[in-house]
Specification:
Layout: H1 29-41, H2 43-62, E1 68-76, H3 98-110, H4 112-120, H5 124-131, H6 144-151, E2 152-156, E3 160-167, H7 170-228, H8 233-273, H9 282-285, H10 290-308, H11 316-405, E4 413-415, H12 430-455, H13 462-469, E5 473-478, H14 485-488, H15 491-494, H16 498-514, E6 521-527, H17 534-547, E7 552-556, H18 564-567, H19 576-582, E8 601-604, E9 607-610, H20 619-624, H21 626-638, E10 641-645, H22 654-659, E11 664-670, H23 676-687, E12 693-701, H24 724-740
Parallel strand pairs: 5-12, 6-10, 6-11, 7-9, 7-10, 11-12
Antiparallel strand pairs: 1-3, 1-4, 2-3, 8-9
Helix pairs in contact: 1-12, 2-12, 4-7, 7-11, 8-11, 10-11, 13-23, 16-17
Amino acid sequence: MSKLKNHPPSAKSPRPGQADPFSGGSFDFGIILNYLYVIKERWWIGLLAGLAVASFYAHRSLQEIPLYHSSVHILFEPRADRVIDIQQVVETTAAGQAENLLDYQMRIIRSRAFRANVAASFSEDEVAQIIEPYRNADGDAPGLEGVLGGSVFFGRDNAGIIVNAHHRDPHAAALIVNRYAERYIASVVTRTGVGNAAAIEFLEQQAAELRGRIEESDRALVDYRRRYNLVSLEDNQNLIVSRLQALNAAHTAARIRILALDADIAMVEGANERQESLIEVPSLVRFGSVPGLLERLNEARAERSRLDLRYLRMHPLMVQNERLIAVYEGRLAEELDRGVRDLHQRRAHLQEEIDKLTTQLAVAENEALLLDSMAIDYNVLRRKLESDRRTFDDIVTRLNETNVASQLDNTNVRVLDSAEPAWMPFTPDRNKIFLLTAVLFLMGFCGVPIAVEFLDNRLKSAVDVEQFLGKPLLADIQAVRGKKDEERGRLVLDEKDDAIVEVYRAVYAGLKMHGVDHFPKTIVVTSALPKEGKSFFVSNFAGACALHGHRVLIIDADFRRPSQAKNFGISGKVGTLSWMESGDELAAEENAPLPPGLGIVQIAPLLHLLPSGGSTKKSTEILEHPRFENLLKVASRAYDFILIDTPPVSLFPDALFAARLAEESIFICKHNGVSRHRVKQCITTLENTQTPVSGVVINNRTSSQGLRPGYGGSPYGYTYRYGPKEYKTYAKYYEESAKSS
């Protein structure tokens, strides 16, 4: 079913995502203002959260027992002081494999065995000094190794190891790190001496074993050379290799030539199969006297073409030329046949050459394999002898160096500076605690309100409408309290509440800017859920349009639960449903009035109401009936605005059927009553009918939450989002200005 009016939307309507001209460029300062207003609206939640988090952190941090820090740096010198430069058996320098060395030393100093070694070095008085600060009220204290394990930490740099200690007693902290350094240096000296003695004994044993193995290998090599006469084995292998290379090169060249001949022969056979001329084969074109014959044949044929222009076929010159062409063609065919035979003869010769080369290659390869098999054992024996000799030389050299190194002082580990007792604790750090307390308070004060705002996904502000839904906000209407239904529907018509009247004037102005810019037009008004103030909005918006001099008709199409007749205090028993059941037809004349049987009631001079005429569950059948479409066509002749009040679109499909007959629609949302995602889904479903949603109205606001400055929504660069309190402030200002003037 097509629409009644098919006019494009106004060019003045902003596109979703289009930069707002009042936003000051691509950056929208309204977003920052909205976050500030979120904090302002929920400042007490942020204040409580910030105070709770900051107070808890400050209390816990300030109650910590003071700890003192001491550290000592154990240096690994790049080169130990030596009279001669000899590498040590137990390596302690940081040169060479520095990373692996430091990792190894770190594992040693962190081990439980080394911790036990350090603990055993303390005297009874030193043990009491270390343990006493950790004794509790009951007199219990941890063990010495437990205190060391929980208070000593290790670090490293490129030069060595850093030992750190955190302790409640500054003197005990310095004592612990100094003792760790002393015991570590002593362990290095001990490990170096023991390592040198063990290394000398091991090297002497290895040298004796290798000496015997070298003698055995040397005798085995001499016997093998005598048995197979392998004095010139390398020269024989070089000759065989050169011969194999030459034969391989010749064999490859012959294979390449025979492949080229096979290609030419294949072309000849293909030409014969296709009954084509052999003159197309490139190798035959260059064979023998073929090039000369071709040239003379082409000249004769060219002469024939010239003679054809002057003489008839039986002319003597023509006959002579024809005989000459036949002679050349015969000789050319004989020469091409001779070229084909030559191709086959050359291929046969090449094949014989390849067979001979293959036989020679096989003989040479067998000779090479024989020499290789003989040389395998020889090379094994020779490599074993050479390897044993190199290993023996290295061991003898290292043995001599170790004997010399064992006589020298080989400790190159030292302490840079001994640790001194700290004069003040490093924790708790009051400056750091106060700074983090302030940061935590600000994070709670600002972050909690914003987090609550994001978790609450109900639609309640202009940002929700304009950024999440991508639609203009036409108005943000405060809740009306203490009014009867008959009074609520006539608030704008009676003009008893100036604030309400101004809000609906803003809706009218916004619809002029964002809606369809022509008359007459049909507007569908719907919502997502029941009781969102949809019928209340229709009656008062119709009054605002009437006050602007437009003829307005309200059609109560909520056939399931009609309410417009109740809003204006009329019966509503006669209306659309009763007319549909009566079967009365509308007049076909252009200027014919609507029939009285419709039950249209005049509410105001320019405002009329078409009641539902009862209720039914078959509302979609009524809205899709051709008589209802014809009713809208006839009504559009008499009225500028036709406002159709429909049921909620998320519960019933009535609004979708009505939207197919309208030019635009308005979506009503109860403040803080429906989720943004549900509204967006409803708007998407509604626009699938090809009827645009010109704007959204937030209705029934009960608080000031969300009344924030924003952009878009009104023709003047801002949206009317104020209630009675704001309006009274402006009214008072204008009254004072009027009195003064």
